[in-house]
Design a protein that fits this description.
By secondary structure, the chain is an alpha+beta fold. Helices cover 47% and strands 10% of the residues. Among the domains are: 89-274, Biosynthetic peptidoglycan transglycosylase-like (Penicillin binding protein transpeptidase fold); 669-713. It has helices spanning 2-32, 34-59, 65-70, 101-111, 123-138, 151-160, 167-183, 186-196, 206-214, 223-232, 236-239, 245-261, 267-274, 293-307, 311-316, 327-337, 398-408, 444-449, 453-463, 465-474, 499-510, 546-562, 630-640, 654-662, 667-690, 695-713; strands at 74-76, 82-85, 320-323, 354-360, 367-371, 416-419, 440-443, 514-516, 521-525, 531-534, 540-542, 576-583, 594-602, 607-613. It has a 5-stranded mixed beta sheet, covered by helices on one side. Strands 5-4-14-13-12 form a 5-stranded antiparallel beta sheet, with helices on both faces. It has a two-stranded antiparallel sheet with strand order 6-7. Helix 4 (101-111) packs across helix 10 (223-232). The chain starts with a helix and ends with a helix.
């Protein structure tokens, strides 16, 4: 009784307080016609949403849907020859006439009975989906739990949209489905759907599914076989007969019953089919077009990074991608990487050494070949050491940071440079030669060929670190401000470089001082023949003069003739370039062996950059000679060079030029040059004592004097 009295009192008090507010609200509601405003707001939102969805539908390129689904994305080489095709969610395309009628009967009975009578979407299906959405919202689930999609909507979802189950995606799906219905007949839509549907176990399309599960073509599928495939569409993982035979049979029998309800078979036939088991026969053979995996990976990466395409678009929209690939060079490079005898020995725990290599045409900047790891280690769009590895370049940076700016500053290939163990700066930075041998003084071309660290640092100190820093950047190598110190001469960079970057940098030497932007893709054409990417006009940069490039090539020829690259020189060919290595500071054996080996070689037709080492810096390369990677590089070059124009250098090696100058040939030239060079050295000595601002001018004057004598005497 007390409780009843309390609640009555509470209701009276609540009514007393709330009733005036309710009367006020009703008066305002009538006065300002709130219902009308709410209706206007609702209609406005509906109008805006409709306009947006119509815009989405109209701007979606459904006209090319059939051709995009029918064709695989193909990759073409530098001669416009087909090189392969990319992985895709596509099976073997067959027309509707090449499919058994049983397939369409089973699929339409179980998935969309009103397919031929609806306009892309089902009102009943939408009502069911809306109810499920409300139900899931009330239970805290932010997705549509299924149902409501017609075959056209399922086709649209797979071809254009993500797999997320949200109301916004469902709305887009409906409007695009209506646009598809405008452009294609019902038979075309059904054909596209059946060729694009997923049937589990990596199989797409009804033709490949028929071969995978029953060993027949799509045209030969029986009623129970067709019902089995139709039952898999809602959940291929759960209902495919290989992984779940019992569930697959139960689902097949459900589909057979729907075919009875749809009057495609009789009850007697259904009972007969339901009593039979599922007999499997796998005759499907996967045909991979991913012939050059690391190259194709790089093509996809460039398309997504530089041209705004998604991986799904590239793989599935039937593009023709034209590239700078040279199939012969690529095949030879892959063949070298498949030979384990060309690699250093494994670490004590069995970890294998790795490598990455890339070849670039210096005349176009196009990448002709790339391999990013040992044979058998490729993972789709995984680690590509030819393009993505970042390591210290070691001595391969010397031509970029030291010798090129030195020649530009007035030094000559046979200028004398110091080779002494000496400290520099306040921190007493003291570079050592890799072999701890010091000659005191030698010619510049010799210091480069023998990779003398002391000479490189001495020379960078003479010309100025800032010049070396700017020179490296001109070659397209990104640097950090902290790299502006004397260790730059030996590859001491904060971040490091990739074989891709180094090969691109060296193309300037091979192409008379001009560096073309490196690239894989030259053009992309869509499935209807429209060019969507045109990269045929390649940007170029003038890095150095033709004279400097020629003199640098002359010096770098000696690297492989009688320098550090002798063991890597390809038999029967003349190349120029540079080798490099980085000393281990963290390897487990602690013996100062090399972490990385670099080999960069070029002719006027191709530049090849190869890195060899371990992925982890805790290992080092304890082997020397051919087992340290030179054999791999030599094998690559001997395979690649026959598939170039085999253009000869327009200069002799620096050692040959020098020997000729001091012999009977060009003796007058040598004596004349010695006088000019002595005058230049005297000037430089005076400049070092107090007039440093005139140093470059004096060196340039000496160089011009030598050029004049060269032109007269033919040296």
């Amino acid at each position: 009784m007390n409780d009843s009295s309390f609640w009555n009192t509470f209701k009276q008090q609540f009514k007393k307080i709330f009733e005036p507010f309710w009367h006020w609200l009703c008066a305002k509601w009538r006065r300002f016609q709130i219902w009308r405003w709410l209706l206007v707001a609702f209609l406005s939102i509906f109008l805006v949403a409709s306009v947006y969805l119509v815009y989405i539908a109209k701007t979606t390129d459904v006209s090319g849907l059939r051709s995009a689904l029918q064709q695989s994305t193909e990759v073409y080489d530098d001669k416009n020859q087909k090189a392969g095709f990319l992985y895709s969610q596509k099976g073997t395309w067959v027309s509707k006439d090449e499919m058994s009628k049983n397939v369409s009967n089973a699929v339409l009975s179980s998935e969309d009975r009103n397919f031929y009578h609806e306009y892309g979407f089902s009102v009943k299906g939408l009502g069911r989906a809306a109810w499920l959405l409300v139900k899931n919202k009330l239970t805290g689930a932010n997705y549509i739990s299924g149902g409501g999609s017609t075959l056209t909507q399922q086709l649209v979802k797979n071809a254009f949209l993500s797999q997320e189950q949200t109301f916004s995606r469902k709305a887009k799906e409906i409007f695009i489905a209506m646009q598809v219905e405008n452009d294609y007949s019902k038979d075309d839509i059904l054909t596209m759907y059946l060729n694009n549907a997923y049937f589990g176990n990596g199989v797409w399309g009804v033709e490949d599914a028929a071969q995978k599960y029953f060993g027949v073509h799509a045209s030969q599928l029986s009623v129970p076989q067709s019902a089995t495939l139709a039952g898999m569409l809602s959940n291929p993982g759960q209902y495919n007969p290989i992984d779940n035979p019992q569930k697959s049979r139960m689902k097949r029998n459900v589909v057979l019953q729907t075919m009875v309800e749809n009057k495609k078979i009789t009850s007697a036939e259904a009972k007969e089919y339901q009593a039979t088991g599922i007999v499997l026969n796998d005759t499907y053979q996967y045909r991979s077009g991913y012939k050059y995996p690391y190259y194709f990976d790089a093509v996809i990466n460039e398309a997504t990074k530089d041209y705004g395409l998604t991986e799904a678009e590239i793989m599935n929209k039937g593009y023709k991608i034209y590239t700078s690939l040279n199939q012969n060079q690529q095949a030879k490079m892959q063949s070298s990487f498949a030979d384990p005898s060309l690699f250093p020995s494994a670490a004590s725990d069995g970890t294998k050494a790795q490598a990455g290599s890339i070849a670039i045409d210096p005349n176009t900047g196009g990448v002709s070949a790339v391999v990013g790891g040992r044979s058998g280690s490729h993972v789709f769009r995984g680690y590509n050491r030819g393009t993505g590895l970042i390591r210290s370049p070691g001595s391969t940076i010397k031509p970029l940071a030291v010798y090129t700016p030195a020649i530009e500053s007035g030094y000559h290939y046979d200028s004398k440079v110091e080779d002494k163990l000496q400290p520099y700066g306040k921190n007493d930075y003291t570079p050592h030669n890799w072999d701890d041998q010091y000659a005191g003084e030698m010619r510049m071309y010799q210091a480069l060929a023998l990779s003398k660290n002391t000479s490189a640092v001495w020379l960078l100190n003479k010309i100025g670190v800032q010049k070396g820093f700017r020179s490296v950047e001109k070659f397209g190598i990104p640097l950090d401000k902290s790299d502006e110190n004397l260790s730059l001469a030996l590859g001491g960079l904060k971040k490091g470089v990739s074989p891709y970057q180094m090969a691109s940098a060296y193309t300037a030497f091979a192409n008379s001082g001009v560096r073309k932007d490196p690239h894989f893709i030259t053009k992309i054409v869509d499935s209807e023949g429209k060019t969507v990417v045109d990269n045929t006009r390649i940007k170029s940069k003038h890095v150095m003069s033709k004279r400097v490039a020629k003199q640098m090539t002359s010096m770098m020829m000696d690297v492989y003739n009688n320098g550090t690259g002798q063991s890597a020189k390809p038999y029967g060919y003349t190349i120029a370039g540079k080798t490099g290595s980085t000393e281990s500071t963290s390897a487990e054996n602690g013996n100062g062996d090399d972490n990385d080996k670099w080999y960069i070689g070029y002719t006027p037709d191709v530049v090849v950059a190869t890195w060899i080492g371990f992925d982890s810096t805790k290992y080092s390369i304890a082997n020397v000679g051919t087992n340290a990677g030179s054999a791999l590089f030599k094998s690559e070059m001997e395979g690649i060079l026959p598939y170039t124009a085999q253009t000869s250098f327009d200069t002799k090696s620096a050692s040959t030029r020098y020997n000729e100058s001091v012999s009977g040939q060009g003796e007058g030239s040598s004596k004349s040059w010695d006088s000019v060079q002595k005058a230049g050295r005297d000037l430089r000595d005076k400049i070092d004592q107090g007039a440093s601002g005139l140093k470059d001018k004096a060196s340039s004057a000496a160089e011009r004097g030598k050029q004049y004598l060269d032109s007269i005497l033919g040296r």
